[in-house]
Design a protein that fits this description.
Layout: H1 11-18, H2 22-30, H3 37-50, H4 56-64, E1 67-74, H5 81-96, E2 101-108, H6 113-125, E3 130-133, H7 138-151, E4 155-158, E5 169-172, H8 175-186, E6 194-200, H9 212-225, E7 230-236, H10 241-254, E8 260-262, H11 272-277, E9 284-288, H12 292-300, E10 305-308, H13 311-328, E11 336-338, E12 342-344
Parallel strand pairs: 1-2, 1-3, 3-4, 4-5, 5-11, 6-7, 6-8, 8-9, 9-10
Antiparallel strand pairs: 10-12
Length: 352
């Protein structure tokens, strides 16, 4: 019999005692979905220790209630970074559907701040219980975050974030450290005298700058360890391959001695045409993210290394944890979840 001096244990207490997620406890108790035997035994042991008794009526009511989450992310073409993020969200939403979780996706144009504003307003019109977004347009995202704070609506960041806001949850790499890692890889073989840091033209005023923290990590590392090195910035148009080729041809004709090239975004593959036309065994090229086109560049030897992580996993975990927090009305125990960073080269590419 439960001691009246102690609160009745909840499913969240079971999850905490067992060291598993709320969803895992639910799957064990109601025999839904796959659970490892080790996790199953942990849950059963926690249930026994806490003398937890599932409330079948409450469970049925909880399953009937719907929890709508609105997600605002950039538009993408097949095979691009945000397509992988989108896949992670869809996978998590499918797994959470039995608990009444629904996801509505809003896609905006990274080159148009008005597009972000329109989609953020549309997300509010959904009347969601939580919003997920990234931080391409820093000023507008900050203002939108303040609006969400006033409404008492929780929000989470995926891939990048604005530290000064009151976000509930973040999943992604530590952007600053990933930039440092990229710079370390670039300078590993021999010290750089000059570096070409290639950036994307995103919008006419360059207000869209989601990779700023990573770029700062990159340049800070170079400035600290190679103070005499010059970092040149080259802007290319991701939507115009002819323009990109001309820009690169002109830049490297003017700087023929550069042997170190880096990009802190996910599109190092945009350099393939130039690199293939101008082979150089001494050149070192470092990019980010294991997109298929990037992996092909590594296989062909045009790119020396990629700093990456399993991209869909971060969005899958974010929606799962965010939904659990909102449904339970409990703040996440940890706000920032920095996913593991991997280094891919031709040596370990096939097994990734």
């Amino acid at each position: 019999m439960q001691n009246s001096n102690h609160p009745i244990p909840t499913v969240y207490d079971v999850a905490e005692r067992a060291g598993v997620s709320r969803g895992t406890v639910d799957r064990v108790l109601y025999q839904r979905g796959r659970v490892s035997e080790q996790s199953r035994q942990k849950v059963l042991r926690a249930v026994e220790e806490l003398q937890y008794k599932p409330n079948s009526n409450a469970s049925r009511l909880a399953r009937k209630k719907e929890y709508l989450f609105s997600c605002i992310i950039p538009q993408f073409n097949e095979g691009e970074y945000w397509g992988e993020i989108n896949n992670g969200f869809l996978e998590a939403a499918a797994l959470l559907s039995e608990r009444g979780v629904r996801l509505r996706l809003h896609f905006y144009d990274q080159t148009d701040v008005k597009s972000f504003l329109a989609e953020s307003n549309a997300a509010l019109d959904d009347k969601p219980c939580g919003i997920i977004m990234n931080a391409v347009f820093r000023d507008e995202v900050t203002l939108f975050s303040q609006q969400l704070d006033e409404l008492g609506l929780p929000y989470a960041f995926i891939d990048n974030k604005i530290d000064e806001t009151h976000y509930a949850l973040y999943y992604g790499v530590d952007p600053y450290k990933s930039g440092e890692l990229g710079a370390w890889l670039l300078s590993l073989r021999f010290p750089p005298k000059e570096i070409a840091l290639v950036r994307l033209l995103r919008d006419s005023s360059q207000r869209a700058d989601p990779n700023r923290p990573r770029r700062h990590g990159f340049t800070d590392y170079i400035n600290k360890h190679f103070p005499d090195c010059t970092v040149h910035t080259v802007f290319i148009d991701p939507k115009d391959s002819c323009s990109t080729q001309k820009t690169l041809e002109k830049f490297f004709a003017e700087h023929p001695g550069i042997r170190h090239i880096g990009m802190t975004n996910s599109r190092i593959y945009l350099l393939e045409k130039y690199l293939s036309k101008h082979p150089d065994p001494e050149r070192i090229v470092v990019g980010f993210d294991d997109l298929r086109k990037n992996l092909d560049c590594v296989k062909k030897g045009y790119v020396s290394a990629l700093v990456t992580r399993h991209i869909p996993e971060q969005s899958k975990l974010l929606l799962t944890d965010f939904a659990e927090s909102v449904i339970s009305r409990r703040a996440p125990k940890r706000r920032d979840h920095y996913v593991h960073m991997d280094i891919l080269t031709r040596m370990n590419l096939d097994n990734y």
